[in-house]
Design brief:
The chain is α+β, with helices and mostly antiparallel strands. 37% of the residues lie in helices and 25% in strands. The chain is built from twelve helices and 14 strands. It starts with 6 loop residues before the first strand and ends with a helix. The mean pLDDT is 97. The structure holds flavin-adenine dinucleotide (FAD).
């Protein structure tokens, strides 16, 4: 199918893009990489009166070291994140996860702002935002505000943006950890995840000093599992820890059945991935000691 007709605006600034959205009376849509929006247009599942293309706005594509955090412009492509040495050294879980985002052609065009705004519960970027406790900067007719990742994702394919707001930057705090892992199962490499987990730890002599856990594909939004983090840190570092960790993680989620998998199967996958991820993270932390 082909899209219903629409007007096209190519503003040169974020302010002009917001003006174009306001002028559309809520009927306009932002276009970034187009990798999720264009299929929706072609199937006529969305019929905006105007597409406001962000690609002509300079200064929205960057990856910047700000000391204790990495700032990423909303128009930064998935492929740039995948190949960034800065991301690899400071946000290693993101670096590992980006290879799993769709296929090469999609990664060449898709943007971080689009990936977050689309809010797919089985997509890596929303999960990474939850994992790192990212701060999402948005600009709209009423000015600028910063939204915590845990508030940004409201439901499947639903974010908390007000009408005419545009994501402009995302800041990812750096974790002071020494072991990490990202594990995912999808039907084919590059498909959306059936289940996935990201784990990062700082290892002490007999216990973990800190842990970070996020999962996706098992709820309507990505989840950071704070209660599981606290339980993991309280466990002794013995041979049983991957098994116990797996039980802790699975107890935190109740995935639904859907077209792609039963909830029971997704839970089973998550349990296996949890064991694998923790073993990898602990081994890495031990090597770093
Ligand atoms: C076959 C296929 C497989 C895929 N597999 C995966 C996968 O495995 N993992 C994964 O993470 N993603 C996957 N994707 C999605 C891909 O990552 C998209 O690029 C991404 O979801 C949307 O980014 P985009 O820049 O293309 O946004 P667009 O398609 O341009 O926009 C998507 C939505 O976000 C809004 N939007 C875009 N930018 C902004 C902004 N700055 N501020 C506010 N709103 C904005 C648009 O209005 C639209 O509603 C897949 C896509 C396809 C087609």
């Amino acid at each position: 199918m082909k899209p219903a007709s629409f007007d096209y605006a190519s503003p040169a600034t974020v302010e002009a893009a917001i003006e174009a959205l306001v002028a559309s009376n809520g009927e306009g849509k932002v276009l970034a990489g187009g990798q999720s929006l264009l299929p929706l247009l072609n199937f006529r599942m969305t019929r905006p009166s105007v597409l406001v293309d962000l690609n002509g706005i300079e200064g929205l594509s960057y990856i910047e070291d700000r000391g204790d955090r990495i700032a990423i412009g909303a128009l930064t492509r998935h492929r740039d994140l995948e190949h960034s040495p800065l991301v690899a050294s400071r946000l290693p879980v993101m670096s590992a996860a980006m290879r799993h985002v769709a296929h090469l052609a999609i990664r060449n065009r898709g943007t971080i702002g689009g990936g977050l705004a689309h809010a797919d519960p089985a997509a890596e970027l929303p999960m990474l935002a939850a994992f790192y406790d990212a701060r999402i900067s948005v600009q709209g007719p009423n000015g600028h505000r910063v939204i915590a990742a845990q508030e940004f994702f409201v439901d499947a394919l639903t974010n908390c943006l007000e009408p005419h707001e545009i994501v402009v930057e995302i800041e990812f705090p750096i974790l002071d950890h020494d072991g990490w892992a990202f594990e995912e199962v999808a039907r084919r490499f590059g498909d959306f995840a059936l289940a996935s987990i990201a784990v990062s730890v700082r290892r002490g002599p007999s216990r973990l000093e800190d842990a970070r856990i996020a999962v996706m594909g098992v709820a309507d939004t990505p989840l950071r599992l704070k209660a599981a983090e606290a339980e993991l840190v309280a466990l002794a570092l013995d041979d049983e820890i991957p098994e116990r960790f797996s039980e802790i993680v699975v107890a935190q989620v109740s995935p639904n059945d859907d077209l792609h998998a039963s909830g029971e199967y997704r839970g089973h996958l998550l349990g296996e991935l949890s064991k694998r991820a923790l073993r990898t993270a602990l081994a890495q932390a031990e090597r770093a000691a």
